[in-house]
TrEMBL record:
Database matches in Gene3D superfamilies: 3.30.70.260
Positions of transmembrane segments: none
Name of the protein: Glycine cleavage system transcriptional antiactivator GcvR
InterPro entries attached to this UniProt entry: ACT-like_dom_sf, UPF0237/GcvR_regulator
A Pfam family annotated for this UniProt entry: ACT_6
Length: 75
C-alpha cells in the first residue's frame, strides 16, 4: 500500500472484562481489512480498556467505522 492510499483511525473502548474480548475485536479489525499499527490494553479493576491505531485503505477504514458500533453492542 502506498503512503497516499493508507488511512488511519484510532479506536478506544472501555467495558466489562470477559474472556475472548481481544480476540473478537482483533478478528473484526482483520475481517474489515484493517491492520493494527499500535495498541495499548489495560485492566482497570473489573474493566477492560484499549486504544488501537488502525490503518487500511479508505474502504477498509469506512467499513470498520460503520460496523464497529454494532460489534461493540454485541460485546
Amino acid at each position: 500500500m502506498t503512503p497516499s492510499s493508507q488511512h488511519y483511525l484510532v479506536i478506544t473502548a472501555l467495558g466489562a472484562d470477559r474472556p475472548g474480548i481481544v480476540n473478537t475485536i482483533t478478528r473484526h479489525v482483520s475481517s474489515c481489512g484493517c491492520n493494527i499499527e499500535d495498541s495499548r490494553l489495560a485492566m482497570l479493576g473489573d474493566e477492560f480498556t484499549f486504544i488501537m491505531l488502525l490503518s487500511g485503505t479508505w474502504n477498509a477504514i469506512t467499513l470498520i467505522e460503520s460496523t464497529l458500533p454494532l460489534k461493540g453492542a454485541e460485546l
